[in-house]
Amino acid sequence: MTSFKTDAKQDRHVGIKSAGNGAHKAAIRQENEEQILAAAEQVFADYGFKGATTARIAEMANVPKANVHYYFSTKEVIYRRIMEDVCDHWLQAAMTFDNSADPAVILRGYIEAKMDLSRARPYGSRLWAHEIIRGAKFSSDYISTTVKDWLDSRVVVIKGWIAEGKMDDIEPYSLMYMIFATTQHYADFGRQIEIFNDNRPLSEEQFAEAKENVVRIILKGVGLR
Amino acid sequence: MTSFKTDAKQDRHVGIKSAGNGAHKAAIRQENEEQILAAAEQVFADYGFKGATTARIAEMANVPKANVHYYFSTKEVIYRRIMEDVCDHWLQAAMTFDNSADPAVILRGYIEAKMDLSRARPYGSRLWAHEIIRGAKFSSDYISTTVKDWLDSRVVVIKGWIAEGKMDDIEPYSLMYMIFATTQHYADFGRQIEIFNDNRPLSEEQFAEAKENVVRIILKGVGLR
DNA sequence: TTTTAACCTGACCAAACGGTCAAGATAAAT
DNA sequence: ATTTATCTTGACCGTTTGGTCAGGTTAAAA
Q: Would you identify the CATH topology of the domain B81-221?
């Protein structure tokens, strides 16, 4: 971990200096900010907003604590930045809704994208879970505008499918909540799943099977395919 | 809140004193412990283990902070107590598995019981979510023994149904995780659902409809009924 | 009535907290 | 070569933290 970071820094030191034009300083900044954000995502996931400490973020990012505050004024700024970034990725996972293809294809694509995000970025998902569990104190505005608009537009699409008789008459919100819950469970409750799985993280094969099961149950459950 | 507590205390003061035999002191103890546990459940749900403060628990329980430590030696003791109590209730919700009735009836009963617990005790669910998200540091032993045994025995039952051709060939763990995730989502992400629902908590009717939708999608999804 | 055991609590403490700052190091611009 | 702007960091500060404790009150037992 430590050696990785040091190496990367030195690589850049050598590789970019010749490019001149202040690129080195810019690279240092980018490198450090990324390092801090990545560390913070993990620490916030583990301890929540209040429980996370800047000292621990600094330690995990391999920078002195004062340096964390050089790049980010407060703990809250870091937290908000990660929070919105995670949610933006989720919203983009529903791009499949936009091309008006077969509902089963659209829903499958969305569920699979969501599962993949849980696998690829579990800390971000867990940070979001913390945020909502504690009452969405920082994010209620964002949710009631951006996220709600996004959700409502998908609900309209689903209602269209129902009206056309393409799927069962299911309350669309219930369906979307089920997709949120189930896909994010594989990140948020990953530790619990790991314990049930004889204390081993799900293998690629196991995860792929889980993903396929989730898709199958939900699609069939709403009368698609 | 305050008046409720004071009244209750005085009621007991009058009502039980005549019973004699140290019942009053015992009643005081029980009353205070319950008050503290109820307050702690909420505070832990809101802030997680590290973020929760004994001062806030005390304030919410309407007792001086020192009194919290008179009844419970440490914050951790309170936390563990609530945690296991919540999980025990969940395990009992799967009692329906024991009478060998129709799979659809059993699964419906379990899902409905789980939904009802999310509605009745959201803070407990959120405390558990915190605990797992941060890595199940206090509960991994409990999960890998008691809870795992419980889960595995239900998985056996489901595999039996599959073998008898009563339902689709679904990986039972995927199904159980989906039930965990979806039912607990209504507690853990209750604030998010509330925001989507025009900033109003789900009414009894809305919740009942959600419950029925969850049951329908999952039962049909696994080929039951 | 006296004694005893349980309950109550303001005041306190060492440790940990988020954030600041001055002073030094480094690299870009002049 | 010198100035300027950015990056780095140990030391520090006021506040909050979980937990303690001595000295009090109250109710049960003797």
A: Tetracycline Repressor; domain 2 (1.10.357)
